[in-house]
Amino acid sequence: MSALGALVVAAAAGLDAAVGEPPNRLHPVAWFGRVVALADREWANPAVAGAAVAVVLPLAAAGVVAGVVLAVGYLTPWLSVVAAVLSLFAATSRRMLLALARDVVAASDRDLAAAREDLLGLAGRDASALSPAQVRSAAVESAAENLADGLVAPLLAFVVALPFGIAAGAGAAAWVKAVNTLDSMLGYPAKRHGTASARLDDAAMWVPARLSAGLLAFAGGRPDALGRAREWLAGVPSPNSGWPMGALAAAVDVRLEKPGVYVLNPDAPLPPTPIAERALAVVDRAGWLAVATAAALALAVPTPAEVLALP
């Protein structure tokens, strides 16, 4: 059993709960974003260039992270554990995104202009004409989607690669975070060089999005939320984001919508402030459930020595 893997998961989650995100100048994801920005330009052959970017950059990020975790382990094995904790901490995000969503919801009634501005840190949509309820909807939608992107996906990748060691787990989590960062920066219809990144993110997020929907249904005490969410997916452009958003809409019985694009749970009202706060509390509980589940799975997976000993 990989007790070290469980320790890494628990310590990374504890670090996030204690300090949130490191400042941008110290954040590896911000460093990676600067590299991606260099590739965000016009290319003579955007399809080929975009495919190369989608393949090479996440693999490079994974290789660097796994290499650092392995290298410091030659000094002392516990340094590799510390490096793995820091890398998983950097690859996951829970506290900061939830705090920002709560700030948006709290400001939506008393200072709509500030709420609209703060929303830009969560959702890539034009907030200038959104009503207070629509701003709250966007904050809740983003929290649900970020549960999958920012927490469940890297934790799942870490656990899946853990039988090959904590360095492999850390590298896998970094790969998923890199893929998601590429999609957030390049995955727009107007950027042909971002098509491959968007499709890769769709594939990488397929399982985490559905697992996140299940966690939200469980955290909200509504096991029927998954079935209800399925009814509303047709209008959501993404093959994945509709699952956690729809499950949360069903779990708290609220309407979530992106005007002109999709409506989830159309027969319910848009979220008043107390319901939006309750929805974010469900996301918070689901996040801790994800951490606990990942730690339990890490305890259950075989160690590298056990894998090598298999007949």
Protein described:
The chain is built from 14 helices and two strands; from the N terminus they run H-H-H-H-H-H-H-H-H-H-H-H-E-E-H-H. It is mainly alpha-helical and 311 residues long. The chain has one domain. A two-stranded antiparallel ribbon has the order 1-2. Strand 1 and strand 2 form a beta hairpin. The protein is globular.
Blueprint of the fold:
Blueprint: H1 3-19, H2 28-39, H3 46-73, H4 77-91, H5 95-110, H6 112-119, H7 132-161, H8 166-186, H9 195-204, H10 206-219, H11 225-230, H12 242-252, E1 256-258, E2 262-264, H13 273-300, H14 304-308
Antiparallel strand pairs: 1-2
Helix pairs in contact: 1-4, 1-13, 2-8, 3-4, 3-8, 3-9, 4-8, 5-6, 5-7, 5-13, 6-7, 7-8, 7-10, 7-12, 7-13, 8-9, 10-12, 10-13, 12-13
Subcellular location: Cell membrane
Organism: Halorubellus litoreus
Protein name: Probable cobalamin biosynthesis protein CobD
In short:
The chain has about 300 residues and is an all-alpha fold. It has 14 helices and two strands; from the N terminus they run ααααααααααααββαα. It has helices spanning about 5-20, 30-40, 45-75, 75-90, 95-110, 110-120, 130-160, 165-185, 195-205, 205-220, 225-230, 240-250, 275-300, 305-310, and strands at about 255-260, 260-265.
